[in-house]
């Protein structure tokens, strides 16, 4: 049995408030524990979006009643909430800015709307950017101009990882995360994921080319964090008229990475760095005392959505053979997950900012 720290996922879409038929604070934290994750940071593109005190409290209230692992909640950057967002900073996981097209209403196209957030959001608190390609270059330029750290979400392209590398070499305060689906899937896998339903392959950022995927692996040292971007939508929605983009990922991330480790593609130390040490530092997260996970590195099995805890009921990795299973999760001295069963109670999760 391999003992690792409880993992931190800085990018999770919980769907509560507003879309609990996809997922809620209970099911998402069960999925987290099953994946060896003991703290999640929740994105603000809910319904309503989290962008002021009232909506923030709505999410936190649901989390405090239902969460089975620890959690933080992002506040979203809107067109006119820079003061309010900055005032929420001590309570929030960070500020999330949507600069590119995605699911939900929080997109900021005009760069003048970015400026007050860069001016007002505390420099000690993380600003997380959904910014792809040239928009990402603009976000990095803003970081340099305003001397404000930024964390680039879900990097997927060769051009992006190379620019982040160059920005870091210049001393710009940029960090980044990469999702398992951009490390293990390319656009060539879309037919296999889709089973005749092209909506299942939809995700933002889109699955990229093999060359992009290869360059994420080549530049593993530039990647600060792994993050799932767990974005549950039901199969009915994915197969319907306007398929929403997004993949679930909490339960498959660690098994996929352990499988890659068993193949010599990365080390266990790199997994711990990118799923514990770096996210803890970048997002100023408190220690979770007496918290660890146990994984059976040699257990081989097939990924099956039917065995998962997420409410969305599917995975793009259906049928993949993996090596490495989460056996046990201990959170603050209590066994929270063991032998495939969630034991932590609803409401036992703690807010990382309290
Ligand atoms: O694929 C995605 N789904 N990308 C995003 O940026 C948002 C997410 C969602 O909330 O469904
Ligand atoms: Zn996301």
Structure explained in plain terms:
There is one protein chain. This protein is an alpha/beta fold and 354 residues long. It has a single domain (2-342), classed as Metal-dependent hydrolases (TIM Barrel, Alpha-Beta Barrel). The protein is built from 12 helices and 14 strands. The chain has helices spanning 25-34, 53-66, 82-88, 115-120, 134-146, 158-169, 180-184, 190-194, 210-218, 235-238, 253-262, 268-282; strands spanning 2-4, 7-12, 37-42, 70-73, 75-76, 95-98, 127-130, 150-152, 174-178, 225-226, 292-302, 321-331, 334-338, 341-342. The strands form 3 sheets. Strands 5-6-7-8-9-10 form a 6-stranded parallel sheet. Strands 1-11-12-13-14 form a 5-stranded antiparallel sheet, covered by helices on one side. Helix 5 links the parallel strand 7 (127-130) and strand 8 (150-152). The mean pLDDT is 97. It binds (4S)-2,6-dioxohexahydropyrimidine-4-carboxylic acid and zinc ion.
Task: List its traits.
TIM Barrel; 354 residues; alpha/beta; 31% helix; 14 strands; 12 helices; five-stranded antiparallel β-sheet; binds zinc ion; globular; binds (4S)-2,6-dioxohexahydropyrimidine-4-carboxylic acid; six-stranded parallel β-sheet
Protein topology:
Layout: E1 2-4, E2 7-12, H1 25-34, E3 37-42, H2 53-66, E4 70-73, E5 75-76, H3 82-88, E6 95-98, H4 115-120, E7 127-130, H5 134-146, E8 150-152, H6 158-169, E9 174-178, H7 180-184, H8 190-194, H9 210-218, E10 225-226, H10 235-238, H11 253-262, H12 268-282, E11 292-302, E12 321-331, E13 334-338, E14 341-342
Parallel strand pairs: 2-3, 3-4, 5-6, 6-7, 7-8, 8-9, 9-10
Antiparallel strand pairs: 1-11, 11-12, 12-13, 13-14
The structure holds (4S)-2,6-dioxohexahydropyrimidine-4-carboxylic acid and zinc ion.
């Amino acid at each position: 049995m391999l003992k690792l720290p409880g993992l931190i996922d800085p990018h999770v879409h919980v769907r509560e408030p507003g879309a609990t038929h996809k997922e809620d604070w209970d099911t998402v934290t069960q999925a987290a524990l099953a994946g060896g994750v003991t703290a999640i940071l929740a994105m603000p593109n809910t319904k309503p979006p989290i962008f002021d005190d009232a909506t923030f409290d709505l999410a936190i209230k649901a989390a405090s009643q239902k969460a089975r692992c620890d959690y933080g909640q992002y506040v979203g950057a809107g067109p006119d909430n820079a003061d309010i967002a900055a005032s929420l900073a001590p309570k929030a996981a960070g500020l999330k800015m949507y600069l590119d097209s995605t699911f939900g209403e929080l997109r900021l196209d005009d760069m003048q709307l970015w400026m007050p957030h860069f001016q007002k959001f505390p420099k000690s608190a993380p600003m997380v950017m959904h910014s792809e390609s040239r928009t990402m270059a603009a976000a990095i330029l803003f970081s340099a101009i305003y001397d404000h750290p930024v964390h680039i979400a879900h990097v997927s392209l060769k051009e992006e990882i190379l620019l982040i590398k160059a920005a870091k070499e210049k001393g710009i305060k940029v960090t980044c995360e990469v999702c398992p689906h951009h490390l293990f899937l390319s656009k060539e896998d879309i037919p296999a994921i889709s089973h005749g339903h092209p909506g299942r392959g939809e995700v933002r950022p889109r699955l990229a080319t093999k060359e992009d995927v290869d360059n994420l692996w080549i530049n593993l040292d530039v990647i600060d964090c792994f993050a799932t971007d767990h974005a549950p939508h039901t199969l009915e929605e994915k197969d319907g008229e306007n398929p929403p983009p997004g993949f679930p990922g909490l339960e498959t991330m660690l098994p996929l990475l352990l499988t890659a480790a068993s193949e010599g593609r990365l080390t266990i130390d790199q997994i711990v760095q990118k799923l514990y040490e770096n996210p803890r530092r970048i997002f100023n997260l408190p220690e979770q005392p007496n918290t660890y996970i146990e994984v059976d590195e040699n257990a081989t099995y097939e990924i099956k959505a039917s065995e998962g805890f997420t409410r969305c009921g599917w995975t793009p990795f259906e049928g993949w053979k993996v090596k490495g299973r989460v056996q046990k999760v201990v959170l603050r001295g209590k066994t929270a997950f063991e032998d495939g069963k969630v034991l932590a109670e609803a409401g036992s999760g703690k807010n990382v900012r309290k």
